Amino acid sequence: MIEISNVSKTYGTGSNAVHALKDVNLTIPKGTIHGVIGLSGAGKSTLIRCVNLLERPSTGSVSVDGQEMTRLSRGELNRARHRIGMIFQHFNLLTTRTVFDNVALPLELMGEDRRAIKDRVIPLLELVGLSDKAKQYPAQLSGGQKQRVAIARALASKPNVLLCDEATSALDPQTTSSILELLREINHQLGITILLITHEMEVVKSICHRVSLISDGELVEDAEVGDFFTAPNTQLGREFLNDFLQLTPPKELIERLSETPSEHTHPVVRLTFSGDAVSTPLISRLARKCSVDVSILQAKVESIQDRTLGLMIAELLGSPAQTQEAMAYLEAHQLQVEVLGHVQRNV
Amino acid sequence: MSSAMFDLVLQATLDTLYMVAVSGVIATLLGLPLGVMLYVTRPRQILAMPVLNQVLGIVTNVGRSIPFIILMVAIIPFTRMLVGTSIGINAASVPLTIAAIPFVARLIEGALNEISPGLIESAQSMGATPWQVITKVLIPEARGGIITGLTITLVTLVSYSAMAGAVGGGGLGDLGIRYGYNRFNPTIMLITVVILVVMVQGFQSLGDYLVRKSDRK
């Protein structure tokens, strides 16, 4: 369980002050996987570092498993950090230690004896599937294997919380999904709470339960992943979603789009279906009911966890009155209708 | 070469090795902690102490900016206090050590600077104390750079030790000046230079070998 309350972080003072985090509030229940997504420089890294106090918040409080982190002494903080594992984008393995000794490091820091270390490291290497690499050095491993070692190392001190700082950003897509699979397993089997930051929607979609969107140091959305992917509340959220779905109108259409409608134009709309609307034949009903023709330019169906999401870019062909009515009909049936612009009628 | 001459060259070689070894070892023992301090007390480092860092930096720079030949004569009272005499190889080892400490410290600091800050951060995230970061992460990870730095120091000490003759210290440089130059004996001069070249090559090869052996990248 992680509770971040009214956390702000400011670097510098006066006119040089940079507000990396502004009054952030976030609660992550035990055993959940929470994603924080945002663009570069939005404050994701600062936020995740405030949890284990690699960065000290300027104001506000951070508590992990009920322990207020900002009030701990140095020694207490080091002990609290044993309960919080962390993995990084660039793995941060010690190059001069073998895989075994890298995983052993947190246990050495805690003063465990050799026997206890061995008993702990061997099953961890098994868990991450690297038992045969124990005596190798990180330079001999692939990126995915390095991150597996880092995960084993982060789990060595039996933490309740795992922080993932862009853990898959340096990996190719296949490796990313295998690392995400491993994280999901760890969450499932060990009940470890995971906070991850990423700029990739794919990561959020595949393993997160909840997601927050961070923009310019502020949390602008906090939602169930299914809700976020079907109905983001902010413009930035929609941009992330569109980027992820790659559902943007063809270029030549965008060039022909005009902002304002006229007698001789048709609206081009983006429709988002979720829930029951996905399985209802709304488009054909629409054609009958409102006497418009629907020209589908692009369409896509995505499943996000237990939800299905349909997206479509379509041109509504009919008189202005008819197309208005059509849009009202769609909205009445729980579709999101976004008018992208208007195109000249083909004569 | 007469046997007397041979003894002279042998003695000078041993003297040089003695001065380099004594000053090299002591300078490492004192320069390594100083170099680590220079690094870890920097602003935003694990033991950030900006004022101390400034002071250490200035002291180190002063030490490094005094020409060795001047340092040697300037600290004669200190040398006499420490080893009871101001001439001989023990006396020459004192300024050699003093000159090498800041030299070693800067090279160690440079070696530590090469370590990815991410490694320090990850050790901190595991709850490592500053001392643990130094002993478990910084020094082991920088060992290649540290060995390189110590090799450079030894080579530099060989050449500095040649100046020790100026305070009546022995060694190959002294031999080369007194017999090779002042008595115009080109054979001695040549032998001296050849031995110094071989010695430097030896140190360098040994250093390179150790760096290769420690390198896991």
From TrEMBL, chain A:
The keyword Cell membrane applies. Gene3D superfamilies: 3.30.70.260, P-loop containing nucleotide triphosphate hydrolases. Keywords: Amino-acid transport, ATP-binding, Cell membrane, Membrane, Nucleotide-binding, Translocase, Transport. Transmembrane segments: none annotated. Residues 2-241 form the ABC transporter domain. CDD domains: ABC_MetN_methionine_transporter. InterPro entries: AAA+_ATPase (IPR003593), ABC_transporter-like_ATP-bd (IPR003439), ABC_transporter-like_CS (IPR017871), ACT-like_dom_sf (IPR045865), MetN_ABC (IPR041701), MetN_ABC_transporter-like (IPR050086), NIL_domain (IPR018449), P-loop_NTPase (IPR027417). GO terms for biological process: amino acid transport. It is found in: Cell inner membrane. GO terms for cellular component: plasma membrane. SMART domains: AAA, NIL. It is a peripheral membrane protein. GO terms for molecular function: ATP binding; ATP hydrolysis activity. Pfam families: ABC_tran, NIL. Signal peptide: none annotated. Belongs to the ABC transporter superfamily. Part of the ABC transporter FtsEX involved in cellular division. Important for assembly or stability of the septal ring. This is Cell division ATP-binding protein FtsE.
Automatic annotation (TrEMBL), chain B:
It holds the Pfam family BPD_transp_1. Keywords: Cell membrane, Membrane, Transmembrane, Transmembrane helix, Transport. The keyword Transmembrane applies. The chain crosses the membrane at residues 16-40, 52-76, 82-105, 146-168, 188-211. Residues 13-207 form the ABC transmembrane type-1 domain. It is a multi-pass membrane protein. One of its GO terms (biological process) is D-methionine transmembrane transport. GO terms for cellular component: plasma membrane. It is found in: Cell membrane. Belongs to the binding-protein-dependent transport system permease family. CysTW subfamily. This is ABC transporter permease. The lineage of its organism: Bacteria, Pseudomonadati, Pseudomonadota, Gammaproteobacteria, Oceanospirillales.
